[in-house]
Amino acid sequence: MSKFTLVVTTVSLFKIVLGICFFETSTTWDEDWYNQRGIIDFSSIICHNTTVADFTYELFELNVDRQESTFLQLSISYSNFSFIRYLINPVHIHKNKKNYYDFSGLSLNYCGIEQIVKDAFKDFKNVTEIDLGYNEINNLYFVSFLPATVTKLNLTNNKIQNVNFDLFLNRLDALDLSFNRIIRLVFNNLGLFGSWLRRVQKILNLNNNNITEIEFLPIFPPAAESINDLQLNLANNNILRVNFNNTLFTIQLKLLNLSNSLHNIEIFPFNLLLPNILDVSDNVGLKLDKTYNFAFLNSINFSNCSIDNINSRIFQGNSYEYLNFSGNNLGLIKDAIFAESYIQELDLSYTKFKNVQYMFQNCKLNRLHLSGNNITILNSRSFINVNEILWLDLSFNNLTLYYNSFVNCKGLQFLNLGFSNISSLKGSTFTGLTDLRVLNLQNNLLKNLEPKIFKPLIKIQTINLSNNKLSILATQLFNSLPLKYIYLSGNQLERIESNAFCNITQLKVIQINNNTGENLKIENEAFYQLMNVNKLELRNCNLTEFNAKYFSETSIQNLDLRNNNLRHVDFTNHTEYIDLKEFDLTIKGDLKAKSFLKLIFLQKITFWDSEIHNWENRTFQGLFNLETLNFKNSKIEHICVGALHGLFTVTQLDFQNIFRGKNKIHSCTFKTLHSLKFLNLSYIGLRNLESLAFVGLENLKELNLKFNLINCFENLTFSGLDELEVLNLSFNNLSNLKADNFKGLNNLKVLNLNNNKIAEINIGAFQTFPKLETLSISHNNLTKFKIGAFSHLQSLETLNLENNSISNLLLESLLPLTSLKVLNLEFNNLKTIGHIDIVYQFINLRHMGIANNKWKCDYLADILLILKKRKIGYSALYPNFLDDNIEGIRCIDVCKFLFCLQDTHGIN
Ligand SMILES: *[C@@H]1O[C@H](CO)[C@@H](O)[C@H](O)[C@H]1NC(C)=O
Ligand SMILES: *[C@@H]1O[C@H](CO)[C@@H](O)[C@H](O)[C@H]1NC(C)=O
Ligand SMILES: *[C@@H]1O[C@H](CO)[C@@H](O)[C@H](O)[C@H]1NC(C)=O
Ligand SMILES: *[C@@H]1O[C@H](CO)[C@@H](O)[C@H](O)[C@H]1NC(C)=O
Ligand SMILES: *[C@@H]1O[C@H](CO)[C@@H](O)[C@H](O)[C@H]1NC(C)=O
Ligand SMILES: *[C@@H]1O[C@H](CO)[C@@H](O)[C@H](O)[C@H]1NC(C)=O
Ligand SMILES: *[C@@H]1O[C@H](CO)[C@@H](O)[C@H](O)[C@H]1NC(C)=O
Ligand SMILES: *[C@@H]1O[C@H](CO)[C@@H](O)[C@H](O)[C@H]1NC(C)=O
């Protein structure tokens, strides 16, 4: 959210438009960078297609109160600024004594800037970042004169050819010179780059130039400290020659990016630059056939370099955090290239390997990526030399698994065998994987699984078998494993045997969605003893039947049966109760009486995309914990009058969906909904409310009947709503209010009758509302009131009568309203009003809306004088200063037509 207080004319939440400039709070920024500098919020004033005179004018119009820790940026783009002499019009600075903005950032993009005069930015006293990307700058003369506060300078996409790093190095934290025309680089004083007092990350981007030659000149005096946090980006250049003319000092870079920049790895003195992370990806033709010393690097990315040979001495016996060789051609390598080394993560994906058993002699590896290779056979010798492997990705290969394939991977915790055309598993395939936590077999061709295939996986938590061709889930398959997640979606299941998930005490999620099998048969007790399942999903499985016999001693938080072919569900004939809390389902058929009887723990039930022909009486009887009953995108053709009976505990019900299109509410429909507090029946086309329609809603606080077609009530319609406090009847067809209409609403506080056709209020119409505080009858056809229309409303504080045709207001009719605080009479036809009497009669009156009546200006002035004296507010909701008015309240200036000579009342 914005931390600005804005004082401008057009205000929208995040964007304030003001001519050519607008104000915006922004969310897309590099959080780490700004958080390190204590900046929390980020906002911009953005101007397009402007000139110095125009945007400075607007800056002074836009009044923004800046708070600390907010980064306020001025962004100008698509304007013509080829020559910048100054950016703030001196005339404005002179005229406005108050300092203008305290900008932290300044950006000028796509402005065709060619030249910047020495002190052009001197008015930006506090600016820390300047972005001049996408211009025509070829000369860096201005840089020495930038305000001393600047630490980040972005010159991407300009025409710079020559740089002298002395200019920047001792004060900038970030310099972006990418996409320029630099051919040769000379680092004179790299050792002093940035300010060493603040330990923040430093960035030097030189990517996408045409650098062919780099020279590192010595540092004088030699820097005692090395650079730890510099990220040097030299990607997409054409580096042919590097001269490191002093071997006495080293620089330790955080990151050196030489992606697509280098043909020959020998020319770079990595041993002197010591990058923690080195990226040499995409250097096609890179050779690793000699011996290079990479022992001091932590992480190297060699991906996509078409490497086909690796000198075995380069990586042997060393240790790395991360080596990435993906997308090379290592398939023919037979040497033990990683022998005796320790590599935390090694990426050999898409490298055309057939066989990996040669390269790892006594190598310690934690994570190994082998996806997308041409590995076809996995047998007991495949991983014979890999030690300590925890994580192995073999996805996207064409695998045939033999006996004991992973017997040498003791300690493996994660194994990905997905998308690998595996058609069968041997009984001992997983032998030895006693530490495995996650096994992914998704998207293979598995049809049958041997019943004890997963038995060796004594610590397994997740098995993903989705998108295979399984047809049967057998009893013993997962027996007694410590599984938490089982994914079986997208198979061709025809049978789930009884006890298919037995003795899996920690199971949390079972997904069996989208099965294409013709007719899935679930055997009785299939979900026997699932003690703590959060979610059992059986969506879209062609199920025609579902009943309580599938469960026993089961506790499921959420059962999802959406999009099957269920015509009804039956949880009646079962000996025990089923502990199910949330139920999502689709029914195309009937809701039968008592069909959920055994789900007494159910708290929430949602019908999705259902077509219910007949909703019988007492369908939900026995659900003593049900709180929410929803119908999403569903149709209900017929509801029996007692359909909702038995829902004693429900607090949330989709009444709009249930009753949409039913034009009548029958007596006793809500008879047992004792817990309901809020009933929304708006927008459903109701015409008729039978007498006793709401009986039973003894705790209802709010009833919304807005936007219906109700034109009258029966005498006992609202009977039984003893606790009702808010009744909304706006936008109906009511025309006449009678005394008996509202019997039973003894506690009503708010009554909304706006936008009806009420022309008359009978005497005593509101007499049953001793506690009514707010009565709103705006947008009706009222012209006057009988004495007694408002009788017994001694608690009424707000009376809203705006937008009627009232031309005459008798004080006597208002007299019962002894507590009146707000009286709104705007948009009526009043010419006179007993204002003096009103003001003295209603001592609590705080506001009286009177705008848009037919006041004469003299008379209005008189009213306002009295109201002002008594400190009663009267300001108009829609002030009008265009016509004759006093303080925005329209009036008829009779004087004007009579050629009066004096303007005595200060008419505007
Ligand atoms: C810039 O404004 C001028 C007139 O103010 C207009 O003719 C031109 O089309 C605008 N250009 C852009 C890119 O908005
Ligand atoms: C510059 O910013 C700092 C910190 O935000 C503030 O204390 C100082 O008053 C500002 N200086 C000017 C000239 O606005
Ligand atoms: C410089 O600007 C470009 C384009 O807006 C952006 O992509 C890049 O990240 C910026 N450089 C730095 C160091 O913020
Ligand atoms: C890069 O520089 C070489 C000469 O050093 C030149 O032949 C080539 O055209 C330049 N490439 C670009 C894109 O400027
Ligand atoms: C190294 O720098 C010295 C002094 O700047 C210079 O004389 C010498 O030629 C340089 N050596 C190379 C190989 O460039
Ligand atoms: C994979 O290996 C088989 C023979 O083992 C070969 O026929 C096939 O072309 C190889 N595929 C790729 C993508 O290298
Ligand atoms: C895997 O085998 C299939 C057919 O058996 C073949 O179409 C595909 O190219 C093979 N993939 C690889 C990586 O060899
Ligand atoms: C579940 O485990 C118990 C005890 O470990 C065992 O007696 C019972 O046979 C198991 N159930 C099945 C169906 O294997």
From TrEMBL:
<feature type="signal peptide">
    <location>
        <begin position="1"/>
        <end position="19"/>
    </location>
</feature>
<dbReference type="Pfam" id="PF13855">
    <property type="entry name" value="LRR_8"/>
</dbReference>
<keyword id="KW-0677">Repeat</keyword>
<keyword id="KW-0732">Signal</keyword>
<dbReference type="InterPro" id="IPR001611">
    <property type="entry name" value="Leu-rich_rpt"/>
</dbReference>
<protein>
    <recommendedName>
        <fullName>Toll-like receptor 3</fullName>
    </recommendedName>
</protein>
<keyword id="KW-0433">Leucine-rich repeat</keyword>
<dbReference type="Pfam" id="PF13306">
    <property type="entry name" value="LRR_5"/>
</dbReference>
<dbReference type="InterPro" id="IPR050328">
    <property type="entry name" value="Dev_Immune_Receptor"/>
</dbReference>
<dbReference type="InterPro" id="IPR026906">
    <property type="entry name" value="LRR_5"/>
</dbReference>
<dbReference type="InterPro" id="IPR032675">
    <property type="entry name" value="LRR_dom_sf"/>
</dbReference>
<dbReference type="InterPro" id="IPR003591">
    <property type="entry name" value="Leu-rich_rpt_typical-subtyp"/>
</dbReference>
